[in-house]
Amino acid sequence: MANWTEENIPDQSGRTVIVTGANSGLGLRTSEVLADKGAHVVMAVRSMDKGQAALEGIKEQNPDASLDLMKLDLGNLASVRAFAGAFKDKYEKLDLLYNNAGLMAIPRRETADGFEMQFGVNHLGHFALTGQLLEKMVNLPGSRVVTLSSTAIFVGTIDFDDLHSKRSYSRYGAYGQSKLANLIFAYELQRRLAAAGAETISIAAQPGFAYGQLQQRAAGEGGGSLEGWVYGVLGRTVAQSMEMGTLSQLYAGTAPEAEAGGFYGPERWWVQGYPGPNGDVKAARDQEIATRLWQVSEELTGETYEVLKTIAANA
């Protein structure tokens, strides 16, 4: 694809979209653009105050934007279930789910359910959320799940012996594990959707180096002045804008030519530029790892994707 931009996004009128982490960064930009294109966007946020400010900011630019604000804490499975229940009570369908929210390189903390925070929020929270919401998608032609990964997959491994980093913790190691898990999940979800005969497709995306609050927060919380200085230099020399960084997930969610099971990101070294297909990552394609991660994720979250078994049985 040659220089695909927001101008290439088809009309999104009539589509219902959920964006997790919609109050800032990539999630906010995704919400803005899709609302401008006519979609009804459910902004799923942990902080309702920050979410309300973000919603009002979109409305200032586009008074006709169709938006809804709903509370979702991906670090608390009870909150995930409550959000999914409230959404299903309110809406008849879900056309597009953006598993966008994430934490990056924070000091070790645990979720309400005792998971290492980055793995718990970035992967397990979205795993549970997707499973809860699929019933509103699987029979809907054109529906998509877009899961956000990162170039941090190259420093990540799935450590099944210490998934929650209790024995040893590395801020970026844990982040890399969570982002690799996101990509493995996106691929495995597509395999299972296809096997069940679902209408929904799963696609992964990554933003390249889009410098913003995520990196600033990482440096501020655990990195110190040197990490902050490095990010500042890279932000001025290598990074691309948040608008450019968001193009990959917008492409994955809206482009008719985006392929089921695809992985899209900036074309230039996976870091900068317009969106295009990113190459395969061997660890993410390992079926044994994918099957084991899915099983462990089911055990930890209690979400077993019964809807896929149901539609497969009725096919």
Can you put this structure into words, describing what you see?
This protein has 315 residues and is α/β, with parallel strands linked by helices. It has a single domain (10-210, 243-314), classed as Rossmann fold. The protein has 9 helices and 8 strands. The protein has helices spanning 25-36, 48-61, 77-90, 117-133, 171-196, 213-237, 242-254, 287-301, 306-314; strands at residues 16-20, 40-45, 66-71, 96-99, 144-148, 201-205, 263-268, 272-277. The model has no long low-confidence stretch (mean pLDDT 92).
The third-level CATH topology is Rossmann fold
Helix fraction? 40-55%
Count structural domains.
Answer: 1
Order of helices and strands: EHEHEHEHEHEHHEEHH
Helix/strand structural class: alpha/beta
Strand order of the largest sheet: 3-2-1-4-5-6-7-8
The second-level CATH architecture is: 3-Layer(aba) Sandwich
Global mean pLDDT: 92
Inertia-based shape? globular
> Biggest sheet, open or closed, and with what strands and sense?
8 strands, mixed
Residues in β-strands, percent? 5-15%
* CATH class wording: Alpha Beta
Secondary-structure map with pairings?
Elements (H helix, E strand, L loop, with lengths): L15 E5 L4 H12 L3 E6 L2 H14 L4 E6 L5 H14 L5 E4 L17 H17 L10 E5 L22 H26 L4 E5 L7 H25 L4 H13 L8 E6 L3 E6 L9 H15 L4 H9 L1
Parallel strand pairs: 1-2, 1-4, 2-3, 4-5, 5-6, 6-7
Antiparallel strand pairs: 7-8
Helix pairs in contact: 1-7, 3-4, 4-5, 4-8, 5-8, 5-9
